[in-house]
């Protein structure tokens, strides 16, 4: 009787421990924030935004570390990391300073 109990109960306890541990291991998930309103930077009448101004707009969206910047004709593409260490790309209109697009890593 005791031998049968060990053979049945111990595997069930082991499975129960694994089932409860799996959600705990998956707790590190990305939770997106609510979308923010577009942020405009005052534009100098002399021409398009400078890279420094575009980076300031990206900082206001959530970029905390800039890894790469790219000027693509009429917009700045600012790539970097957010406060959670996740990848983020912010596209800023070079003329108005308006945020056109924000791409965030979900991993």
If you had to describe this structure to a student in words, what would you say it looks like?
The structure is a single chain. The model has no long low-confidence stretch (mean pLDDT 79). The protein starts with a helix and ends with a strand. It has a four-stranded antiparallel beta sheet, covered by helices on one side. A hairpin with a 3-residue loop joins β1 (65-71) and β2 (75-81). With 107 residues, the chain is α+β, with helices and mostly antiparallel strands. The chain has helices at 2-25, 51-61, and strands at 65-71, 75-81, 87-93, 99-104. It is rod-shaped and about 85 Å long. Helix content is 33%, strand content 25%.
Structure summary:
The chain is an alpha+beta fold. It has two helices and four strands; from the N terminus they run ααββββ.
How do the helices and strands follow one another from N- to C-terminus?
HHEEEE
> Count the strands?
4
Main sheet makeup:
4 strands, antiparallel
Helical content stands at: 25-40%
**CA-based gyration radius:** 24 Å
**Sequence of strands across the biggest β-sheet:** 1-2-3-4
What is the typical, i.e. mean, pLDDT?
Answer: 79
User: Structural class from helices and strands?
Assistant: alpha+beta
Low-confidence segments: none
Q: How many distinct helices?
A: 2
- The amount of beta strand, in percent, is 25-35%
Beginning-to-end CA distance, first to last residue: 50 Å
Regarding quaternary structure, what we see is single chain
Looking at the structure, what is the overall shape? rod-shaped
